[in-house]
Amino acid sequence: xxxxxxxxxxxxxxxxxxxxxxxxxxxxxxxxxxxxxxxxxxxxxxxxxxxxxxxxxxxxxxxxxxxxxxxxxxxxxxxxxxxxxxxxxxxxxxxxxxxxxxxxxxxxxxxxxxxxxxxxxxxxxxxxxxxxxxxxxxxxxxxxxxxxxxxxxxxxxxxxxxxxxxxxxxxxxxxxxxxxxxxxxxxxxxxxxxxxxxxxxxxxxxxxxxxxxxxxxxxxxxxxxxxxxxxxxxxxxxxxxxxxxxxxxxxxxxxxxxxxxxxxxxxxxxxxxxxxxxxxxxxxxxxxxxxxxxxxxxxxxxxxxxxxxxxxxxxxxxxxxxxxxxxxxxxxxxxxxxxxxxxxxxxxxxxxxxxxxxxxxxxxxxxxxxxxxxxxxxxxxxxxxxxxxxxxxxxxxxxxxxxxxxxxxxxxxxxxx
Amino acid sequence: xxxxxxxxxxxxxxxxxxxxxxxxxxxxxxxxxxxxxxxxxxxxxxxxxxxxxxxxxxxxxxxxxxxxxxxxxxxxxxxxxxxxxxxxxxxxxxxxxxxxxxxxxxxxxxxxxxxxxxxxxxxxxxx
Lengths: 417, 127
Fold this sequence. Notes:
Chain A has 417 residues and is mainly α. In chain A, 72% of the residues lie in helices and 0% in strands. Chain A has a domain of 201 residues. Chain A is built from 19 helices and no strands. Chain A is globular and about 60 Å long. The two termini of chain A are 34 Å apart. By secondary structure, chain B is α+β, with helices and mostly antiparallel strands. Chain B has one domain: 2-Layer Sandwich (Heat Shock Protein 90), CATH 3.30.565. In chain B, 29% of the residues lie in helices and 23% in strands. A four-stranded antiparallel β-sheet of chain B has the order 1-2-4-3, covered by helices on one side. The two termini of chain B are 25 Å apart. Classes of the chains: A mainly alpha (417), B alpha+beta (127). At the A-B interface, helix 6, helix 8 and helix 19 of A face helix 3 of B.
């Protein structure tokens, strides 16, 4: 399978989703929903299924994903696990928070950042793609604080672009805090920046209450999109040399997943596809068992798992963290299908490298700490950071890594390296 | 300054890689040319053929600006975990790894697009 062919598969996949949206949701309803998303508030939790319907939401997500792919192709970025992670994270979060103008303003800011430091834009491309975590800042300034529409749009674009300029230096520095043990590093970066942004806005008397758009209804498309996608990736992984690829899939499970773990390079493209399909299917079954809705944010969580199953997540390193989350939620008597808990469960897999590197017990602790923390971190920053779990996960990873390092340096523990 | 920082990070990551095997000897040699730098690192740890093949595969990925510009910054900043030579392989012009009588020799060339390791002024046998 050639590199370009993999890009072609992704392009065809998103085009099919657009087609399905038009066929099942109606052309005008889909377009209207898409337009509504571009001018709606997008802070956490803004389920676009509830705001604009399934068709418009899927059109928004597919168009943004296609745009990302064309940018990657334009910059001649080779297919890697990071490409899958970035594209499917954009697709997932475009179901509940990312829209076209906000994403362009962040990308523009990161581009300016590359010009300032005389670096090629390709060197910051993944910061730009993941950096759209701060998209809600654009919609807040443009549409939530009652500015004149043109002034609001321009202010939103300029302010969000300025944030984009600061993303690369902060994202690079944040890696050093958690040493690559938090997969959503830009989530931690965006959370860190959001503390400053939300404080500035609150000082300017802007109210930052969390939003509560959370769809409970299900349609055929949102129920079937995940299992069909998983099936597609599993078939792609198995159609040629299935025995060899299954063997590679099992060897992939031994990877600790620490950033940057490009499974496409370290194992094989086909084994990575099997991992993507299988891991996401496991979490989809959990979503059904926990009676959670298959709405925008939940599907967003599943698509993010799909992408990062090529860039750090596997069954072995994800499950301990997730069990830590579920056990803690049960002990705290929290419903497993409440928004914070189901999203916390899916996105807690940002801490997969902790269990992959330091064992099951540390993974369980990480999951427990994560779910305790993540319920409050969105409030700290007024829902401005879409990757709220990346922020909480970064704090948990930094805490655990610092303690482990301290204990190892004092020869109290010996870590398996 | 930028190049100095890069060299320090690379030396740190390679040292981490060598020291995790607990060698009795490690030599780091740096030679500056007009348009590039040659780093040679030696140790006295014997490795299996399988280990060396795996290492060669990791470092032979070639330059990956899209990954090195961001994740490459982890090189030399490891507190915990294994050293990772692939982080270096992404950002240098050339990296090679060969067995010596005692252990391993890692050659790293850092330089601009014009830098040609084959025109290096120090003969191989003197490195």
